[in-house]
Design brief:
By secondary structure, the chain is an alpha+beta fold. It is 27% helix and 34% strand. The protein has 5 helices and 10 strands, in the order E-E-H-H-E-H-E-E-E-H-E-H-E-E-E. An 8-stranded mixed sheet has the order 1-2-4-5-6-7-10-8, sandwiched between helices. It has a two-stranded antiparallel sheet with strand order 3-9. It is globular, with a radius of gyration of 16 Å.
Length: 186
Protein backbone atom coordinates (compact mmCIF):
# COMPACT_ATOMS: atom_id res chain seq x y z
CA UNK A 1 0.00 0.00 0.00
CA UNK A 2 1.39 3.39 -0.99
CA UNK A 3 1.11 6.12 1.56
CA UNK A 4 0.65 9.73 0.59
CA UNK A 5 3.91 11.38 -0.41
CA UNK A 6 5.56 12.99 2.60
CA UNK A 7 8.18 15.41 1.42
CA UNK A 8 11.17 15.80 3.67
CA UNK A 9 13.93 18.32 3.19
CA UNK A 10 17.69 17.94 3.70
CA UNK A 11 19.28 21.31 3.10
CA UNK A 12 18.43 22.16 -0.48
CA UNK A 13 17.15 18.67 -1.30
CA UNK A 14 13.60 17.44 -0.88
CA UNK A 15 12.51 13.80 -1.04
CA UNK A 16 9.11 12.51 -2.12
CA UNK A 17 7.48 9.47 -3.66
CA UNK A 18 7.60 9.75 -7.44
CA UNK A 19 4.36 9.81 -9.39
CA UNK A 20 3.49 8.95 -12.98
CA UNK A 21 3.81 12.64 -13.92
CA UNK A 22 7.54 12.33 -13.09
CA UNK A 23 8.23 9.43 -15.49
CA UNK A 24 9.74 11.41 -18.39
CA UNK A 25 12.01 13.42 -16.07
CA UNK A 26 13.09 10.25 -14.24
CA UNK A 27 13.90 8.34 -17.43
CA UNK A 28 15.92 11.31 -18.71
CA UNK A 29 17.80 11.56 -15.39
CA UNK A 30 18.62 7.84 -15.26
CA UNK A 31 19.78 7.81 -18.87
CA UNK A 32 21.94 10.92 -18.32
CA UNK A 33 23.63 9.36 -15.30
CA UNK A 34 24.57 6.08 -16.97
CA UNK A 35 24.53 6.28 -20.76
CA UNK A 36 25.96 8.33 -23.59
CA UNK A 37 28.27 11.31 -23.62
CA UNK A 38 26.28 13.29 -21.02
CA UNK A 39 26.99 10.57 -18.46
CA UNK A 40 30.73 11.11 -18.83
CA UNK A 41 30.39 14.38 -16.88
CA UNK A 42 29.86 12.24 -13.77
CA UNK A 43 31.76 9.26 -12.43
CA UNK A 44 28.89 6.72 -12.44
CA UNK A 45 28.81 6.37 -16.23
CA UNK A 46 28.46 2.92 -17.75
CA UNK A 47 29.06 4.29 -21.26
CA UNK A 48 32.25 2.26 -21.75
CA UNK A 49 30.64 -1.07 -20.85
CA UNK A 50 27.03 -0.62 -21.98
CA UNK A 51 25.32 1.24 -24.79
CA UNK A 52 21.62 1.59 -25.45
CA UNK A 53 19.05 2.36 -22.79
CA UNK A 54 19.36 1.97 -19.01
CA UNK A 55 15.61 2.05 -18.38
CA UNK A 56 12.39 2.92 -20.14
CA UNK A 57 9.10 4.61 -19.19
CA UNK A 58 7.40 1.23 -18.68
CA UNK A 59 10.06 0.13 -16.20
CA UNK A 60 9.77 3.35 -14.21
CA UNK A 61 5.94 3.19 -14.19
CA UNK A 62 6.12 -0.42 -12.96
CA UNK A 63 8.22 0.63 -9.94
CA UNK A 64 5.93 3.58 -9.16
CA UNK A 65 2.80 1.42 -9.44
CA UNK A 66 4.06 -1.57 -7.44
CA UNK A 67 2.62 -1.76 -3.93
CA UNK A 68 5.92 -3.26 -2.70
CA UNK A 69 8.08 -0.42 -4.10
CA UNK A 70 8.83 3.24 -3.68
CA UNK A 71 10.63 5.39 -6.19
CA UNK A 72 12.08 8.34 -4.31
CA UNK A 73 12.33 11.52 -6.34
CA UNK A 74 14.96 13.92 -5.04
CA UNK A 75 14.44 17.55 -5.97
CA UNK A 76 16.46 20.73 -5.74
CA UNK A 77 14.65 23.96 -6.54
CA UNK A 78 11.69 22.06 -8.02
CA UNK A 79 13.81 19.97 -10.43
CA UNK A 80 14.38 16.24 -10.02
CA UNK A 81 18.15 15.82 -9.61
CA UNK A 82 18.31 12.24 -8.27
CA UNK A 83 16.21 9.17 -7.64
CA UNK A 84 16.32 5.68 -6.20
CA UNK A 85 14.09 2.64 -6.02
CA UNK A 86 13.27 0.87 -2.78
CA UNK A 87 11.50 -2.49 -2.89
CA UNK A 88 10.26 -4.39 0.14
CA UNK A 89 11.40 -8.04 -0.03
CA UNK A 90 10.57 -9.56 3.35
CA UNK A 91 13.28 -8.84 5.92
CA UNK A 92 15.31 -6.75 3.49
CA UNK A 93 14.77 -3.95 1.03
CA UNK A 94 16.26 -3.82 -2.44
CA UNK A 95 17.96 -0.58 -3.51
CA UNK A 96 18.12 0.15 -7.22
CA UNK A 97 17.57 2.64 -10.02
CA UNK A 98 19.93 5.04 -8.20
CA UNK A 99 20.81 8.06 -10.28
CA UNK A 100 22.27 11.48 -9.52
CA UNK A 101 22.51 14.14 -12.21
CA UNK A 102 26.05 13.94 -13.66
CA UNK A 103 26.54 17.69 -13.16
CA UNK A 104 25.98 17.24 -9.40
CA UNK A 105 28.00 14.07 -8.83
CA UNK A 106 30.99 14.26 -6.52
CA UNK A 107 29.38 16.90 -4.27
CA UNK A 108 28.24 14.51 -1.52
CA UNK A 109 24.60 14.19 -2.64
CA UNK A 110 24.89 10.42 -3.04
CA UNK A 111 25.76 9.96 0.64
CA UNK A 112 22.76 12.04 1.74
CA UNK A 113 20.41 10.20 -0.62
CA UNK A 114 21.68 6.76 0.48
CA UNK A 115 21.15 7.68 4.14
CA UNK A 116 17.61 8.91 3.42
CA UNK A 117 16.83 5.76 1.39
CA UNK A 118 18.05 3.54 4.23
CA UNK A 119 16.06 5.54 6.79
CA UNK A 120 12.95 5.37 4.58
CA UNK A 121 13.23 1.58 4.12
CA UNK A 122 13.72 0.97 7.84
CA UNK A 123 10.83 3.28 8.76
CA UNK A 124 8.40 2.05 6.09
CA UNK A 125 9.06 -1.69 6.37
CA UNK A 126 11.17 -2.37 9.46
CA UNK A 127 13.79 -4.15 7.36
CA UNK A 128 17.12 -5.35 8.76
CA UNK A 129 19.18 -5.15 5.56
CA UNK A 130 19.48 -3.31 2.29
CA UNK A 131 20.45 -5.35 -0.78
CA UNK A 132 21.60 -4.13 -4.18
CA UNK A 133 23.24 -5.57 -7.25
CA UNK A 134 26.12 -3.84 -9.02
CA UNK A 135 27.89 -4.81 -12.23
CA UNK A 136 30.94 -6.62 -10.84
CA UNK A 137 33.49 -4.80 -13.04
CA UNK A 138 32.44 -1.42 -11.55
CA UNK A 139 35.27 -1.40 -8.99
CA UNK A 140 35.14 2.33 -8.21
CA UNK A 141 31.37 2.24 -7.66
CA UNK A 142 31.57 -0.89 -5.48
CA UNK A 143 34.30 0.76 -3.40
CA UNK A 144 32.01 3.79 -2.91
CA UNK A 145 29.23 1.51 -1.62
CA UNK A 146 31.71 -0.30 0.64
CA UNK A 147 32.58 3.06 2.22
CA UNK A 148 28.84 3.45 2.95
CA UNK A 149 28.83 0.14 4.87
CA UNK A 150 27.88 -2.32 2.12
CA UNK A 151 29.79 -5.57 1.82
CA UNK A 152 30.52 -7.70 -1.21
CA UNK A 153 28.95 -11.14 -0.96
CA UNK A 154 30.56 -12.83 -3.96
CA UNK A 155 27.05 -13.93 -5.03
CA UNK A 156 26.78 -13.33 -8.76
CA UNK A 157 23.86 -13.34 -11.16
CA UNK A 158 24.26 -13.25 -14.92
CA UNK A 159 23.85 -10.08 -16.96
CA UNK A 160 20.76 -10.39 -19.22
CA UNK A 161 22.68 -10.57 -22.50
CA UNK A 162 20.29 -10.27 -25.44
CA UNK A 163 17.69 -8.21 -23.53
CA UNK A 164 18.32 -4.70 -24.80
CA UNK A 165 15.96 -3.20 -22.20
CA UNK A 166 19.05 -3.32 -19.94
CA UNK A 167 21.53 -2.01 -22.48
CA UNK A 168 23.81 -3.35 -25.18
CA UNK A 169 26.93 -4.85 -23.55
CA UNK A 170 30.31 -3.78 -24.89
CA UNK A 171 32.14 -6.69 -23.24
CA UNK A 172 31.36 -10.33 -22.54
CA UNK A 173 32.26 -10.61 -18.83
CA UNK A 174 29.41 -8.66 -17.23
CA UNK A 175 27.57 -10.01 -14.20
CA UNK A 176 25.88 -8.56 -11.13
CA UNK A 177 27.26 -8.93 -7.61
CA UNK A 178 25.00 -8.76 -4.57
CA UNK A 179 26.03 -6.13 -2.00
CA UNK A 180 24.43 -6.11 1.46
CA UNK A 181 24.28 -3.65 4.32
CA UNK A 182 23.02 -4.86 7.69
CA UNK A 183 21.20 -2.25 9.76
CA UNK A 184 21.41 -4.00 13.13
CA UNK A 185 18.82 -3.47 15.82
CA UNK A 186 17.27 -0.06 16.16
Amino acid sequence: MHTAPRPSTHGELSFRDATETDVDALVALIESAYRGDDSRAGWTTEADILEGQRTDPEGVVAVIASPASKLLAVERDGTIVACCQLEHRGEHAYFGMFAVSPALQGAGLGKVIMAEAERTAREAWGVREMHMTVISVRDELIAWYERRGYRRTGKMTPFPYGDERFGVPQRDDLQFELLVKEFGSA
